[in-house]
Amino acid sequence: MAIFRPFSSSEALRSDRSAGDRQRHREKLREAIRDNIADIISEESIIGRDKDRIIKVPIRGIKEYRFVFGDNQGQVGSGKGDTQPGQVVGKAPKSGEGAGRAGDQPGLDFYETDVTLEELIEIMFEDLELPDMERKILRQVMSERIAKRKGYRKAGVRVHLDRRRTAKARIRRKIATGSAPPPAPPAANLSDNGPVARPSDDGEERFPFRREDLTYKRLVEDTREESNAVVICVMDTSGSMDSMKKYLARSFFFLLFQFVGTKYQNVELVFIGHHTQAREVTEEEFFHKGESGGTLISSGYNKALEIIYDRFHPSLWNVYAFHCSDGDNFDSDNAAAIKAAKELCEICNLFGYGEIKPLGSHYYESSMLDLFRRLEADNFQSVLIERKEDIWPSFKAFLSRDRVRTDA
Amino acid sequence: MASWDLKDLQYWDDAIRERVEEFGLDCYPQEFEVCDHGQMLGYMAYHGMPAHYPHWSFGKSYEKTKTMYDHGVTGLPYEMVINSDPCLAYLMQDNSLCLQVLTIAHVYGHNDFFRCNFTFRTGTRADQTLAQFKARADRVRDYVEDPSIGQERVERLIDAAHALSLSCRRHQAIRKLKPQEQRERQIEAAQPAPDPFARLHRRPEYAEPDFRRVPIEPEEDVLLFIRDHNRHLQAWEQDVLTIVHEEAQYFLPQIETKIMNEGWASYWHHKIMNSLDLPQELHLEFLIRHNQVVSPHPGGINPYHLGFRIWHDIERRFDDPTEAELQAYGPPNKSGREKIFEVRETDRDVSFLRRFLTEELMRELDLFEFEPRGDNLVVSKVSDPDDWREVKETLLHTVGMSAQPMIRIHDADYGNNRALYLKHEHDGRDLHIGYAERTLGYLYQLWSHRVLLETLMKGKRTLLSFGEHGFDAKLMR
Fold this sequence. Notes:
Chain A contains twelve helices and 13 strands. Chain A has 408 residues and is an alpha/beta fold. Among the domains of chain A are: 147-184 and 207-221, no CATH class; 226-399, Rossmann fold, CATH 3.40.50. Chain A has a six-stranded mixed beta sheet, sandwiched between helices. Chain B is an alpha/beta fold and 477 residues long. Chain B has four domains: 6-117 and 257-289, no CATH class; 128-177 and 217-255, no CATH class; 296-401, no CATH class; 405-475, no CATH class. Chain B has 19 helices and nine strands. In chain B, 40% of the residues are buried. Chains A and B meet through β1, α1, α2, β3 and β4 of A and α1, β1, α2, α3 and α7 of B. β4 of chain A pairs antiparallel with β4 of chain B.
């Protein structure tokens, strides 16, 4: 006779034995994510993610290492009965990860962890060393639009009843009608060790609440200054963007988008990728498609102008335009670029140019920065981004230039 | 939700036990625990042990298993039974009655295997399993809570120990020689071979064995060696190394007999279920489940499938051999049933396959060898008359501990620098250099001095090392 131990739900709830180890694993995962935040953010579409904020990021689990065999180990599989030499039976794992084999071999350590987008962004903020205050402000954008407290009112729903004020109002009214003296403060009795005497409740006349006592908390919708804004992201997609550049560009655009989001109710996003010609694209394509060829920055700007006049007329929309590139441009195009940039400055709240030059390549590659310096407009800002520590300072520099429109 | 209760389980368990006795299975006392999804995942993460030392890798294992099951998985869902006396097994609360009955029958198959197979008998003490795991868990927890040690240090040490836990002796049934015995063996080996023409030949040089060498003979138990020879280790560190080593030793028989064991349990759940008088709906579900369990995995090897087929083939060959088999092996000397009972005692996967995976069976199962070529995995050999032996050899190299590189410590004082010199016994397969780098890093952490590993990379003798300047790889002359 075998022994059967029945399921006990209280046991199940009480003891989650793996909780400690799972927690520790998540901590390590978080550390690993932080170390690799550049890679993850550069690949994830985080900017225009709308309300969908749970991202299940396929993380390569924290690897456990042992001595294992490499590529030339030879493996055996079973087939349906008619396998022939030369037949393809699967995809080889990426090089450097070892031959794919089911079980505990290298290469199959991917699995899903629900690192939420918020967590990811939190880690990114940490990584960029954003000051806490700013993080709070930006984080607010991500949370639901909550109503803010603003004083009190006499009418409302029961849920918003402020009991304390209501009680105080009743007492005030009671005193005002003169029906009972205010109770003596018990402070005088503190010196002796006897029990503190309290005014007796027995026999006191009832003084009920009245409707005029009821006080409710007043809540107002979070007002945003103006309703509509559009953020136009322009980027040079000629040649390949490596992981670091993508991370820098993406983080920068993301911060700007969040910033604009704090001020406006409804923010639209437009991505324009350009090489010698410009095209409106999705966020995916924006960061992933690389094309070869030369760069004509003016094409990007002109496309932006075209889209603005077409869909986001400045009289109705607040336009924010940002351009990221690595500084390359055909010399012959510079004049056209400046001209288009000037026009953009006139119609935008803020126009910015960020040059992404990871670590020192600034010194030997061409740069648009000098050219743009000649562009004098008080809502234009150009910055150089060499490493992620630069992102926050440049971002602040942008903010200082925002020209808030008082009309429309 | 499930529509059975405890009485149903007991009813079917009684019926199954009757069959188990009839068929002659030899089992430990059996205990079942019913648990829910969360608890089951918890048990699976800790290899089914009610008590286990804590480490983040089990948290990871939990998440990994959970993801796999969330995405659907083939094979026996949530199978968990441990090698212990009494034998503990877990049943999922949400499973259907048919699945419970199937699992129970399957578990008895495992139970018998744990009790009778020689690798388990020689390598583990089932009646002490639970107590030992608990004792080890308690000791590690004490170290974690000890203010002079703390969780971080324990974790770091276990990280490194895990990396080397399978670099150990594989043949538990062969007794390890004590140092004195090793010396005697070395002395014997140094004696010149008996030579009938000794008077004519020049006297051979007598090479005295060097007994200052540590180890005297190449050492396979890496963790134990480090524990015993690294003077910088504190007592608690030595204990943790012992614990990790002992746990790996406990699981070695399971690694070595995966195919046999799963095949055996599948063979018996199939026999038992067919002998029970199952009501029709249960029977139908059983057929579906059973087929899921033993269906071949495309592009890989399903141990349930392979084991199941081989056990059946052995039985058939001894009960009902074909003409060709009579020619090849002669008439059978026992019945099929007797033979499989014998084999389940005496073999491990490698010998099991070597002895009983025949050319015909390989062709039936359509076993092939594949390798990466460019972006794809491409078939290189199939089980035709020309290549079947090579396919078989490749398969043998991937089962049990043969899938682990054989690495031995040769010198604990290399270059008089207290550097640890190891050799990889190359068998045609190169080490994965990225993983080797990290693992050597762990070895360096444990040994506290430089570590060197001699191996072959693409046919060339290579020396990998890890020291205070990090990892290095260079060709040897």
